[in-house]
Structure formats: structure tokens, C-alpha cells
Amino acid sequence: MSDKKTVTSRRGMLKGAAVAAGAMSVPMIATAQTTSLRFQSTWPSKDIFHEYAQDFAKKVNDMAGGKLKIEVLPSGSVVPAFQLLEAVAKGTLDGGHGVVAYHYGKNSALALWGSGPAFGMDPNMVLAWHNYGGGKALLEEIYASLNLDVTSYLYGPMPTQPLGWFKKPVAKVADMKGLKFRTVGLAVDVFTEMGTAVNPLPGGEIVPALDRGLIDAAEFNNASSDRLLGFPDVVKNCMLQSFHQSGEQFEILFNKTKLNALPAELKSIVDYAAQAASADMSWKAIQRNSQDYIELKKQGVKFYKTPDAILRAQLEAWDKTIAKKGTDNALFRKVLESQKAFAQRAGQWQNDYMVDFKMAYNHYFGKGAKKS
Fold it and tell me: Whole-model pTM?
């Protein structure tokens, strides 16, 4: 072999070795796998409640950095609203967004997370009881007793719901008797005790039923949802303040098996996203509900305060209802006892410490307020 060929050969060998070494030094780039979960809400796509469900999903998706993606479908996309719990438990859906009271038919104790006066607790206090006063463990116990493979995150304290929309304003307890009225959960029993004929229609069916005269009155939830559903198009009287659902919150459901299969990091993201969404939802509700309250007035809706006599009648009807339900349902009694113990302590603290904000509001905006 000539010297020239030898040099050329050595150069080729060195070049090949360098290429091989370079290839070995390039790090392998791992492709992050995305876990996609399909959720369904129990709300129409345009409802602010469906927006809340999407807000939660966005928080999870943003924080997960592509590792987890939740898609939220509107009510009825896969199953009817009231069949959401079973669909999530069976894995037909990976998760869902609704309210615990919708599962009332499975065990009446489930309605205690939304219906009734909650021993004087406001919605945020009910969530405090759930997270720190034993409510979460009780809810898990109920779902386990029903063999439902779900994990529940309660969040989002709802503002107090109106008594409802009426073709004629109600001024006394007797006015409630014989009314064909829409509500859900244990409120069904409360209003039945008060003499109304209750029909627990899903949200999307309420306004058409009112329009056709199938019902005389109905409640749903808040100024924003009620306006979007079309209540002001068929009824012009709304009664504000009620104890039938004064402490309700939202529920985010996961199929437990699918949630447990996620890495610890992603499960933590889900947990903290629910907490963040709870605060965000309560702030958004104040903003949007107050705006839509004004718009409803512009549409000719007349608002009336529910008479105290009707509110007291609700409390009396509630006492009779829980006495009946607690007789043959040990879990019902267990939830009530837990709520009552927490409410007695926390309620005394809140009532003693909190100032009357209405006094300050009237000072600045009431009839006798000084104009600046």
C-alpha cells in the first residue's frame, strides 16, 4: 500500500469514528405522551356552568404541559345529564361536571351537599365542612356503598339561589299550595311538604314547560344561567332569597381507576386545579351574575324578596323532610350530624365576627346616602 493510500485510509477511519462518536453524544429526545380524558358536563354549551367546567379543564391542561388533556363536552353529548354518575363510574366517560344533588335518586343523603339550609351555613362554609369537617370522607363512604368507581372533587360555592320564577308573585305561604313547580334534590321533598306539585325537570326542559303551561313556576340557579335559559322570555316575576338550595357547590367527577392510573404529578395538578377553579368560579360568578341581574331588569323582569313567612315555612318543611329521610337511612343521619356539629361551631364564629355589609352598602348607595 502506498503512503498516499495509507494516509487517505487513515483519514477515512478517523472521520468515520468522529461521526460515530458524535452520534453517540447526541442525547435521545423523549416524546412526551399525552393522556387524553373525555368529560361531559350536565349543562348546555352556552351556560355559564359549562364555562366553569371548561375553566377547570383549561387549568389542568395548562399546568400539565401537554402530559394531560381534558376535553369537556356539553350535556347530552354522550349520556343524559342525570346519567352522568353511572357513565363516569362505568368508564363510558372519564369524568364529568355537575352537582351532587343530581344523584339524589341513588341515596337521599347525597342531596345534603346542596339542598336545604345546611344549619345556617353559607356555600363556602359547606365547602369548609366538606374539606375539613368530615364531609369528604362521608361522600366517599356513600359512593363506596353504591359500588361507584368514582373520585369526587367538590368546589365552587354557588351564590344563594332564588326561590324561582313565577307567573304571579307569591306573597304568603298559601300561595305556594297547588303550584306546579320545578326543582331538584331534597328541595323536591321540601316544596312537596309545602303543598306544591313538584316536577324535577332537567335544566333544558324548564322554560319550554313554563311556556306551554305545564308548570306554573320553577327555579334553576342564578341570574346568568336563568337569563340564558330564556326565563325572562316567558315569565316576568322572580322571587329572590330561599333556603331550598342556599349552600350548593359544583362537583368534578373522575373515573377512579383512570385517575389512579395517572402519575402522582398529574394527580396533584388535578387536585390543585380544582382548588384554583373554586376561587376563580366564585369571583366570576359575582362579576357575571351582577351584570346579568341588571340586564334582566332591563328586560322587564320584576324582582321581589321572598316573604319571611315563606322562608320560615321552608325551614319547618325541611325539618319534617330530614326527620322522615333520616328514619330509614343511617348515612343520611350521619351526614346531618356531621354538618350540624360543624355548623354550630363555625356558624357561631362567623355570625359573631362578620360585620353587616348591608349597612355599609346602604350608607353609600341606599336611599339616604349622601351624593358626592
Answer: 0.88
